[in-house]
Structure formats: C-alpha cells, structure tokens
C-alpha cells in the first residue's frame, strides 16, 4: 500500500471513530442500541480497498471506540468486536464472490450478520437464557434492517461523491484484495 493510500485509510479510520463517538451522543430508546453509522465507512472502504483494509478499519474503530468510551474488554466491547468481524467478513465474502449486491444489499447482509453474531455472543457469554434472546431478536433484526438500509444508502451516496470528485486514487475502479485494478 502506498503512503498516499495509508494516509487515506488513516483518515477514513478517524472518520469511523468520530462517527462511532458521535453516535454514542444520540439518545436511543434502548440503552445499548446503536445505529452503526461507522459501518458506512467500513463498507465504503470495503468497496474501494478490499477486505483487509476494511477489517483493519473495523478493528481500529472497535478498539479505539472502546478505549475512548471506557468499555474496553467489557461486554459492549466483546459484542461490538464479534459483530464487526462477522459483518465485515460476510460483506467482503459476498462482495468478492459477486458484484451483484449493491452497497445497500451488502449493508443489509452486514447488519443481519452483525446482529446474529451479537445475539449469539450475548447468549453464550452473558445472558444464558434463550427465551430472553428470542424475545429481543425480532426488535434487534427489525432495527438492523432499517439502519442497514440507511447506512447502505449513505455508502452509495458517499461512493458516488468520491468517484465523482478529484480525490486522487479514487477513479471509479474497485479494489480487489486491497490492490487497484
């Protein structure tokens, strides 16, 4: 990766951390519910630079976000890490296998797998009551569908804007495995 790309990725990681932090300021009806706006950056990076860079952004965001919020190694960190790894991995796998999915479709898949991973981890590590997990699953999945659609739409708009701008290195071509075609 060239130094210009590294700088761009560092800037995108900072945007993801900033969005993660700003999102924590938004009041939600359920205390641990988050909209996942930082995933807009993760998905944008996935499309532009590939899996390795998008997973790096995810890991940096989760680690730094938890350090800034004081949740490092707590339940929130574990759930965020598991969900982030699951969603980034599935979006990357589907994106590399077929370019048929738009950013909205990828984001919806990412949201679904993020929520499934978090619910599974919550059950295995913290709750241990399947009825409690099953009770909140429909609400979690519904909110995930809504936020996944919003985040995917925002990613699509961001990609159009970046590809139409004079940003060097973003020429409309997509990266594969972190390398430009």
Helices, strands, pairings?
Blueprint: H1 3-23, H2 38-49, H3 51-69, H4 75-97, H5 103-127, H6 130-163
Helix pairs in contact: 1-2, 1-3, 2-3, 2-4, 2-6, 3-4, 4-5, 5-6
Folded structure, characterized:
The protein is mainly alpha-helical and 181 residues long. It has helices at residues 3-23, 38-49, 51-69, 75-97, 103-127, 130-163.
Q: Could you give a quick summary of the protein structure above?
A:
This protein has helices spanning 3-23, 38-49, 51-69, 75-97, 103-127, 130-163.
Distance between the termini: 13 Å
Largest sheet: none
Spell the H/E element sequence.
Answer: HHHHHH
Specify the overall morphology.
globular
Number of helices: 6
Count all strands and give the number: 0
Helix share, percent: over 70%
Q: Give the percentage of residues in beta strands.
A: under 5%
Low-confidence stretches: 172-181
What would the keywords be for this entry?
single chain, 181 residues, mainly alpha, disordered C terminus
């Amino acid at each position: 990766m060239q130094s210009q790309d590294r700088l761009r990725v560092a800037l995108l990681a900072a945007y993801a951390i900033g969005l993660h932090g700003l999102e924590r300021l938004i009041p939600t009806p359920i205390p641990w519910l988050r909209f996942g706006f930082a995933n807009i950056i993760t998905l944008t990076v996935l499309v532009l630079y590939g899996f390795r860079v998008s997973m790096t952004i995810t890991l940096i965001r989760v680690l730094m976000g938890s350090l800034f919020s004081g949740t490092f190694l707590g339940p929130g960190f574990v759930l965020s890490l598991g969900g982030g790894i699951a969603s980034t991995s599935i979006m990357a796998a589907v994106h590399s296998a077929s370019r048929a999915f738009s950013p909205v479709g990828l984001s919806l898949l990412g949201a679904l797998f993020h929520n499934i991973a978090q619910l599974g981890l919550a059950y295995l590590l913290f709750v241990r009551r399947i009825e409690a997990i099953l009770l909140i699953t429909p609400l979690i999945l519904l909110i995930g569908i809504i936020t996944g659609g919003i985040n995917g739409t925002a990613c699509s708009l961001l990609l159009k804007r970046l590809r139409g701008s004079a940003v060097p290195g973003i020429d409309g071509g997509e990266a594969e495995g972190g390398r430009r075609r």
